[in-house]
Amino acid sequence: MATISIQQEGRALEIEVQGRVVRFHAIWLRDNAWDDQTRSPGNGQKLIRLSDIPVATAIADARLEASVLTLTFVPENKVVEYNLAWLLEHAYDGVPARQKGWIDACLHTWDSAAMAEPPLGCFNAVHASAQALQGWLAGLARFGVAKLANGPVADQALMQVVDLFGYVRETNYGRHFEVRSEVNPTSLAFTRQGLQAHTDNPYRDPVPTLQVLYCLENSVEGGDSLVVDGFRAAQCLRDESPAAFDLLSRYCACFEYRGAQGVILRARRPMIELDPDGRLIAVRFNNRSATAIAEVPYGEMEAYYAAYRRFGEIIDDPAMAVRFRLEPGECFIVDNTRVMHARTAFSGTGMRWFQGCYADKDSLLSRLATLQETLGDA
């Protein structure tokens, strides 16, 4: 049973439900009204500006019947109904203080002990079944990485993967790129060398937020794929040395790429990126693309480099990596703002031929949200 009371001469409302007390300001309540004069019934977008709401907005009357809260605002004399559950879900009173570097509860961080293999989907199943697609996308969103198996061994089959949820992010590499050894490579990715775990394209702003790597041939010795959860690595650094975590999140690193003629890409972003409220939102780590760091004061540069070195050591720890081998017709996707990928060196007379492309996470999350709304949570 809930009780309500008007507070601060109408400038606030207090709701008590099962011992929980939350308060809402009148201006917040009025701004978040869902009547068809305030928001479009079709898409939920606001039809008014904040300046259309009187500065002196107050609550003149409040009534609660079952789960419906009805408020009357003055000086507009406007009556608005609210769903009580929606209000409690969006309550901002009493939000607990969070540790710097906190992570959304819907995300699960991992290392090799916590995740033996990325979430796996079947190519045909996720194309044929909305439930299978929802489960696979949910795993990708939760863990930042997922695999698909039993796909076609065909040129640009990876486009069919992106079509499941969104759109290709075209870059100077084209709509897709070939990952195989070359005589004069424009990137170390196109050699037989092993690659340290890294996020792709840190020299772009905004960075592509998803990367797809699709196997068409893998008959070499070696060339295994590895993935590392950058959020778990950042947590480890924070727990071990809050000062080191602070340095890598407070100062920008600098990244640059000079490839084919006419391409010079630069970006400056922290290696560990936080929201203004301290939420961990991205990791950028790519030693190959790092350029001279000139954003750190002289007095803190040595400590910054020590933090940088330690972060790299955590990332390189074999216990952090999940290792697997892709066979033709298999692919994996990583959240490129979070999960780093790597490969072991390869040799022999065979061929390792992958195709890759970029996409963006907003479309994936949109597709997942619509599936969850239709089918319920996975």
UniProtKB/TrEMBL annotation:
Gene3D superfamilies linked: 3.30.2020.30, Clavaminate synthase-like (3.60.130.10)
Classification via SUPFAM superfamilies: Clavaminate synthase-like
Domain TauD/TfdA-like residues, every copy: 128-358
Family annotation (InterPro entries): AlphaKG_dependent_hydroxylases (IPR050411), GBBH-like_N_sf (IPR038492), TauD-like_sf (IPR042098), TauD/TfdA-like (IPR003819)
Keyword Nucleotide-binding found: no
Keywords of this entry: Dioxygenase, Iron, Metal-binding, Oxidoreductase
Cofactor: Fe(2+)
One Pfam family per UniProt: TauD
GO molecular function, one term: dioxygenase activity
Homology family: Belongs to the gamma-BBH/TMLD family.
PANTHER family: GAMMA-BUTYROBETAINE HYDROXYLASE-RELATED, OXIDOREDUCTASE AIM17-RELATED
Protein name: TauD/TfdA family dioxygenase
Species name: Marinobacterium rhizophilum
